[in-house]
User: What shape does this take?
Amino acid sequence: MKRFAALVLSLTATAFAATTPVAGSWKIYGDVNGYPVNESCTFSIDKDNKITGTCSLSNKSYDVTGTLEDTKLTFKHGGEYEGQALILTWVGTLAEDGSLAGTIDVQPLGYPGTFTAKKAEEDKPKADDKPAAAQQ
Assistant: This one.
């Protein structure tokens, strides 16, 4: 019975991660204090809505941690500006079309910013991915 319960929990977590709109690769575009921000991020989400992953910014990769509460996604990662270590905190809202928009807080500089994000093209289903019967 314990094995069965463990299997069910494992399958449920896997199914949840596969169906959540947050899991996958994202392209993020924003502005912080007049400076453009362009990132590529890959997120995973567990059954407790905890976010992990990586974001690439300025040819460097940073580990991501965060949470998803309803449609509110909050995540943070490190960064660097002129040799100073930074923490970027992103708070956004998932829209019905699957996009994400919100604010960026850059500490310890105290610079605010805004961003928009969309799933990377390789994560979106293509028309060719439909079963042959559906394409007729």
In short: The helical segments are 2-19, 132-135.
